[in-house]
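Incident log entry.

Two folding requests arrived from the same account within the same minute. Monitoring flagged them as a possible duplicate submission, but the sequences differ. Recording both here for audit purposes.

Request one:
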Amino acid sequence: MHILRKSLLVGADQAEGVAVVIDVYRAFTSAALMMHLGAEEIVLQAEPEAVLKLKREAGYLAVGEVGGQMVPGFDLGNSPSRILAAGRGIFAGRTVAQRTSAGITGAVAAARRSETLILGSFVTAGAIARYIQRLSPPPEVVSLVAMGANGQEITPDDEACADYLEHLLTGRAYDHVAALRRIVAHECTQKFLRGDQDWYPPADPLFCLQRDLFDFVLVATQENGQLVARRVDVRG
């Protein structure tokens, strides 16, 4: 198994083999939490207008952001803490249309060349590693794509998650305490902790930085012209 490390939107365009597109803050933490709360599937859309159309015409739940802020007409923004506060009642049995500036746009880009597409975050990392290790035949290439800020700027949260996944897959050394120090000191976390912008709740990092919360992975496939993510359970 060859691990191919990529970053940002340019890296998503180059993903091949089994692609794990990583967005810790916050898209794929939010996606995992929505599945935990009972969502049936998540339709990934790069454009907010497409999400609003699905909400209007198909009754999908509209979730996500542009520039970190919830889009007018959406039901929820891209906040793990607020998704949890909304609760199971809003998500159970529903199809979600999700749009974000980094993770979703990266997943849409990676889907063009990859053979298998997985949505990555710390909360599902252990399950992702088990899923990949159990594939038959074993994949020749695994692309770990850290999306960073808006798919344009490398950030330590997504790079650390890629480091952790590489550790789980290959045994390469990984120090989560050192990673947390870098993540918490960086603006990617400080913008939440300052609490001066409503769309960056201070509680979000508490959920985003938890490792291995769930025994499932989110695998996205092309279906009728849409990229759809579903939950695949992976027991230890």
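Request two (distinct sequence, not a duplicate):
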Amino acid sequence: MEAAGTRAAIVDRAVVVGSLDGLEGLTIGRLAGDVGMSKSGLVRHFGSKQGLQLAALEAAIEIFTREVWEPAAAARPGLARLRAICAAWFSYLERDVLPGGCFMTAAASEFDGRGGPVADATRAAWARWLRVLEGEARTAIDAGELGPGEDPAQIAFELNAIAMGLNNARQLHRDPAAPAHARRATERLLGPS
């Protein structure tokens, strides 16, 4: 297998392992064994465990983007796009695209009180996503689709909290009613479709 293909296979496996065991659960030894190569061969691709973690995080962001943002991007900006984002986000969580649920939610919980490059990259990814949600909420408010007194940052916060709560309820509690609860909470926030 060529170097780019080997690296991609390692990263794919790292995302799966990271979704189940967290980014700290990613070890050079484990991944090397999983993909059938030596530790030194794996290190050549990433340089360190931190390099491996950052590569896995970047790949997870690409999956999240493909699964959540891209299906909603064609919707009309504002309320229609916010609803499309929520529909895609909930679908992503319900379909168990990754076996451990939302990698980004898990990374946020794992690194929320830490410093360093992996925590910084996780924070930056979430900050970008919250800006997307806030921008769509602002567009909806400006268009009169949501009340003029609404706070776009609050809407972004609540939508994020609903999705993180859905991930937690599905992964930790195995709650089959969680998707319906999330949809009702979203409807309360954004109004009926």
